[in-house]
Amino acid sequence: MFRLNLKIALRNLWKNKGYTFINIAGLSVGMAGCILIYIFISYQLSFDQQYANKDRIYRVVSYWKYSDGEEFQNGVPRPLAYAMRNDFSQLEEVAPLQRGGGVVQVMDEAGRVKMKTDETVFYTDPSFFKIFDVKWLAGTPEQSVTEPNTVAISRKTAIRYFGDWQQAIGKSIVFKQVNQLKVSGVFEDQPETSSNPIQILLAYSGFKHRQLKEWGSVSSGTECYVLLKEGMKPADLAGTMQAFIKKYYSDDSDVKQEHFFQPLSEIHVDERYGNFAGKTTSMREIYGLAAIGLLLLLTACINFINLATAQAIGRSKEVGIRKVIGGNRKELLTQFFTETITLSFFALLLACVITEAVLPALSGLFKDELNFSLVNQPALIVFMFALVLFVGLLAGVYPAVVLSGFNPVLALKNKVNVGNSGGGSLRKVLVVMQFAITVVLIAGTVVIVQQMKYMREKSLGFNSSAIAMAYLPNDSISVTKFDIIKARVAALPGVTSVSLCSVGPSSSDNRTSNFSYNSTKDMDFMVNTKAGDEDYFKTFGLSMLAGRPLAKSDTLKELVINETLMRKLNIVKPEDAVGQYITVLGEKVPIVGVVKDFINKSLKEGVSPIVLYNAKNSMSELAVKMDTRQISTLMPQIEAIWNSYYPNYVYSSSFLDDHIRAYYESEVIMGTLLKIFAGVIIFIAFMGLFGLISFVATQKTKELAIRKVLGATTLELVNMLNSSFIKLILLANLVAWPVTYILVSRWLSGYAYRIDLNLWPFMVAMVISLLITVLTVSLRTYQAAMANPVNALKNE
Amino acid sequence: MITLKQIEKYYTLKGAKSYVLRHIDADIQKGEFVSIMGPSGAGKSTLLNIIGMLDEPTYGSYKFMDQELSSLSERKRIEIYRNHIGFVFQAYHLIDEMTVEENIEVPLHYKNISSSERKSRVADLLDRFQMVAKKDLFPHQLSGGQQQLVGIARALAPQPLLILADEPTGNLQSAQALQIMDLFRQLNKDEGITIVQVTHSEANAAYGNRILNLVDGVVTNNS
């Protein structure tokens, strides 16, 4: 029976080629979208899953609760790891993972420097490898990360330094000019899907820091991993943690500090804490994409249902015959499901081709290595077959139930009327649903595009164009060269202004400090501290509300505060702030000016309270504002000057504009994705409408002919058919608007600076949906309306 | 074989009953060849559909092989129907997407007959109706008479006791019509298959051994 059903299914599909094409085209595009989204999501969820102990590995993270907010940090105080090793008996292993960095020099046989690179290194101890089962090609963790004078490197790094990993063992490198390190281990490269991109590994015993024993300072460069004992849950450790926190933190502070055990699987998908790879994809994004995938599939299925029920009239005779010769409902259902599943299967084949073609572009958009390989991803095969079954059954169930339910006597007389019975109204509901989804997506896309444009054009309160930021080493010897470098760069023709600073006005690198004002007790919020010299205000075009910019100085002597801080200190007039004293960074210093607010983070967040001060040892960047036309000739000159003073360091620079743009990378991705998927859904809806209107036109041939005989013009007939569909589309818009409004408002509320929601996106969505409808319907019905009525009526 | 008692069929339209069949009493014995005759709209096809279990009477009792149908479950009724009744239509009603061979085979699928048994029965029927050469053709490639032969072959495939034919020759030219009617007579005589046909034609009715005359839903003559 199955073989016969399949054969009949194929013949039926072939007989209605147009219908088959529309169905397969719509379905395959929808399926391809789903497969792509599946590949992306499974890639994101595969992060850090390659370890044998993955379910018992946790990262210790930090959390602070302030009076006006909270903060999440991947870092922990530096002494925490070893304290935890002593205090927690429930932990099998505890390992610190400390990030560091510096210039690495690789020597050749003769002892000359053959390579000089700026590298990120990690410090840890052998217990790290009892937690994470990393394969070692040569050496052992005990040999390599116990002694301060040894180093272990990844296979890729070994090849980069020495040409061949087998030759790396025993060779030496120089780290930070002075540390001679011997390569004593080579480990296998960590996959792309790792949150700890370790290339160079040093012993934790060699890590030096002046706050090594300090519990009050937390850096995002200090992480701690633990391996829970078999059968333990993080909840079992809560009591020990309470005692631990009590033991190491004073409780007279207003700030409440806590540590949590974060499961390994959440490191990549929890964007509140960062990680060393700097890559996170929030669960919100993953759910969002999954929802889009589901919508895609739903629209495609709706097409299927619509076309199949519309076509049911043509199949009624067959159903009648099958029933008369003994087929019961179950057998007919099986037959129709065979058909829909066959069709879905063909759609899947086409979807695979589309996926293969589109994947590189998607990889590029996400800057991730995604691949479509059925051999390596058996789960993908299961997913695809589940997809075929899901689509086949979902799309097939309604038509199958309707068709198999026909009364055989009426069916044989062609008297079943699908158009006016339940099938017709269901079809209307489905069309409304499909277009409502389309309208939501179009309007949503328009809002995102508007918000992106707003953020691009929003005045940041400072000038960011044509400013290069060059890195400066700030050890005590390097600092002495700051003034001469600044003077030499400033003297270059085309350079407008040069400033030494810690960071630009807007930066993702934000340093905060506690401070006090008019009291010995610290305020209950932190200030953002930025160091800038006397030219900082001129270089970035910051404007003063009162007082003066910072004066030339080598150490912290005075402050400029921003408007937000002034308001938070309850000072009304900027003039009143000048002359007040603030104790910050260990000094009590006067406020000499108030600067107008500028956006210091992304536009998603509000402006932080900021103090600006001038102190040479806080400087780590050289900001160079130049004539736009001369950027390309100036950049090499700046690099040359820099290299002449810091021959042992590696020059790096970036543009402030690029840096600011990077804040909105996820919005750009989201915007692009929405545009693509909105396009795809419009396409699918268009195909569906086209197919549906074809059937309606055929069904109404007789009615059109009679009306024509009675004197209707072609245009009037086209209008008549249009009007019924236009009503549906208007209804779809009405349904979609409130949904869009809720979704879009929620999205916008994530931005401190956002557009006011106006009617435009809704109007655009309505016009586009109407235009598509009128175009499709007119195109198809014109033909039917033009036909000679005699031919249509003769058939009766 | 068939006992109809006080069969009535009516539709209610705006409160008024519109009768299709009234007080039908009839007995059809095994091996009979009965013709139902009457003018258009007399209810002939409705009666045939009720006998064929495609339609249900509004009122009355219908016994098929001594079983009261209204007391049987849907499943049981389909079981009886599949095994004992074959239908032949005026418009042939073959499945357009299937070849001659497949069309004949379909009812056997529904009876869950094994593949080899199906093949041999279909081969027998094709052979008997001299259609072996045409087994891979589709219905639209055949003449009307040939299509009706396939229709009859299909009705015979499950080896029914009763064949119901609704104007089987209505769409055929006279020569072909004769051939079909001869076939019916042969099936009735040689194989003892009970046949009930609806017809307009006196000539066709003459092939049978009994005529049921129907006018406005009432049996006027049962001879």
TrEMBL record, chain B:
UniProt keyword terms in alphabetical order = ATP-binding, Nucleotide-binding, Transport
Q: Which residues form the ABC transporter domain?
A: 2-223
Coiled-coil ranges (or none): none
In its UniProt record, a GO molecular function of this protein is: transmembrane transporter activity
UniProt cross-references to Pfam families, sorted A to Z: ABC_tran (PF00005)
Q: Does the keyword Lipid biosynthesis apply?
A: no
User: Could you name the Gene Ontology cellular component terms for this entry?
Assistant: membrane protein complex; plasma membrane
Concerning its family, UniProt says: Belongs to the ABC transporter superfamily. Macrolide exporter (TC 3.A.1.122) family.
Under which name does UniProt file this protein?
Phosphonate ABC transporter ATP-binding protein
